[in-house]
Write a structure and sequence with these properties.
Layout: H1 19-27, H2 31-42, H3 48-55, E1 65-71, H4 77-90, E2 95-100, H5 108-117, H6 119-122, E3 127-132, H7 140-154, E4 159-165, H8 169-176, E5 180-185, H9 191-197, H10 200-203, E6 206-209, H11 217-233, E7 246-248, H12 257-273, H13 276-302, H14 308-320, H15 326-340
Helix pairs in contact: 1-2, 1-3, 2-7, 4-12, 7-8, 14-15
Bound molecules: guanosine-5'-triphosphate and magnesium ion (MG).
């Protein structure tokens, strides 16, 4: 991906290809501008902060929706996204699909597979598909995914779908911040156990047992119900809690997808009615703000012109030579730095 995007510094960018020029094009729904800005954000390229500030007021419209689809490898997530998104399209909704793959530094493999699986969407102007990776960037995949969603929303898409393989905390972080989380499992024994281990049970708003055409789906549904009971018993008395429905489905046969869409819409209505949507938005914005502040502090301390640069060696020597304990030395440093005021980069 980066090969297609040479460093900006080589030539002075023309107004329409400068970061803020691209933002103007983004607001007009220019897909190429969207793709370039996504690369900029993904790579933490020059000016990406200003870009996000500029798009922020235009993203997260009240009616925009973020859907997270996760589950074990090969459960049929992409196939299901294809079927589901086709239905959104019939209602005229524009959809951005962000395939988040934390496992590989290059998303090539996943993209190829998804191209085939989501074939029917590729020629549709109302659908934008993009794979995201982090290449070790700051804030991790969850941060990049949600910043990418801001760009997609600012380009006028109504629904953002995150697809991620649910195997661990990183993936949980990506989808957890979505408005509705769909966990896709299969009747294969082991799927539910894996989902439990990965922490997917707690974040699911809707469960799908896919590949019902292969048999064993009823047993899988029962096993899931059993696994979920302890979680549901923890609900507080009287609190109107959402009970995640468990749906049988066959993505390849396109069976049961209507019911899934209805369940997603029911959950959407639920979180709107309970004020949860605003809460989720607040949590997302708070996470972003906290990350940026913490990163700024880290830079102010440790960066090239960081405040610790001058004082560090002296403090370290004091501790090494036993003149001061490590805690006393750290406290003295902190006092000094805070009094002198940090210079934020
Ligand atoms: N029999 C059957 N096969 C399915 C169904 N849904 C998906 N598959 C097949 O399962 C395989 C994986 O499907 P994908 O949609 O790529 O699954 P995925 O969860 O996106 O996979 P990763 O992104 O690689 O984790 C493909 O060969 C699909 O054709 C289904 O409902 N029934
Ligand atoms: Mg997939």
């Amino acid at each position: 991906m980066s090969a297609q995007h040479p460093p900006q510094a080589q030539a002075a960018p023309s107004p329409s290809t400068s970061p803020l020029g691209l933002v103007e094009r983004l607001f007009q729904g220019d897909v190429r501008a969207l793709a370039r800005l996504l690369s900029l954000v993904e790579d933490r390229g020059p000016g990406y902060e200003r870009v996000l500030d500029a798009v922020f007021p235009h993203a997260q419209r009240a009616d925009a929706y973020r859907l997270g689809i996760t589950g074990p490898p090969g459960a049929g997530k992409s196939t299901l996204v294809d079927r589901l998104v086709r239905r959104f399209r019939r209602e005229g909704l524009r959809v951005g699909i962000l395939a988040c793959d934390p496992t590989s530094p290059f998303t090539g493999g996943a993209v190829l597979g998804d191209r085939v699986r989501m074939q029917s969407l590729r020629d549709d102007e109302g659908v934008f598909i993009r794979s995201l990776a982090t290449r070790g960037s700051l804030g991790g995949l969850a941060a990049v995914a949600h910043e990418a969603a801001l760009l997609v929303e600012a380009a006028g898409y109504d629904v953002v779908v995150f697809e991620t393989i649910g195997v661990g905390q990183v993936e949980v972080d990506v989808v957890e911040a979505a408005d509705t989380v769909v966990v896709v499992l299969t009747p294969q024994s082991g799927d539910a156990v894996q989902a439990l281990k990965a922490g997917l049970m707690e974040i699911a708003d809707v469960f799908v047992v896919n590949k019902a055409d292969q048999g064993g789906a009823d047993r899988a549904v029962q096993a899931l119900q059993l696994a979920l009971r302890p979680l549901q018993d923890q609900d507080e008395e009287g609190k109107k809690a959402w009970r995640p429905p468990i749906l049988k489905l066959s993505a390849t046969r396109d069976e049961g997808v209507e019911a899934l869409k209805a369940a997603i819409e029911a959950h959407r209505a639920f979180i709107n009615a309970e004020g949860l949507k605003a809460q989720k938005r607040r949590a997302r914005v708070e996470a972003l703000l906290r990350r940026v502040v913490e990163e700024g502090l880290r830079q102010a301390l440790w960066g090239d012109r960081g405040a610790l640069k001058a004082r560090w060696e002296e403090a370290l020597q004091q501790v090494l030579q036993g003149a001061r304990g490590p805690f006393a030395a750290a406290e003295a440093l902190l006092r000094e730095l805070l009094k002198a005021r940090l210079e934020v980069p």
